[in-house]
Amino acid sequence: MTRDTLGQSEFIVLGVLARRARGAHGTALLDDLQEMTGREWSVGALYTTLERLEKKGFASSEWGEPTPQRGGRRKRIYQVQAAGLRALDKTHEMTSALAPARAGSRAVEA
Q: Is 21 inside a domain boundary?
């Protein structure tokens, strides 16, 4: 059974990917991630996260057509799956539910 909530990097990457209805390739995702988070993401961090999301069934990928701009090479296009949208919703609900309690609460002693 796969987890149906997301870690922080998974939530961010999948959320950015979900904003692109036709999917996106790595370079476009890196640009979007930097714009959304205000920090630069490494290529390795992005692709490690995308691989994890694919293994969980939250994202999928396929090879695009070769383009002259890329010297005849193809891009790998990633898309969010229905399970990924559900995981985004569940994770958002969970973090939203925690935020008000945390903002107004005091530390609890063990």
A: yes
User: Can you give the pTM of this predicted structure?
Assistant: 0.81
CA distance 20 to 83: 16
Strands (E) located in 24-95: 59-63, 76-80
Q: For position 78, which CATH number holds?
A: 1.10.10.10
What one-letter code names the amino acid at 43? Answer: V
Element (H, E) at 83: helix 82-104
**Per-10-residue mean pLDDT, the chain, length 110:** 78 95 92 94 96 96 85 90 95 81 56
55 in helix, strand or coil?
helix
Q: Which residue segment(s) compose the domain that 77 sits in? A: 8-98
Q: How many domains does the chain have?
A: 1
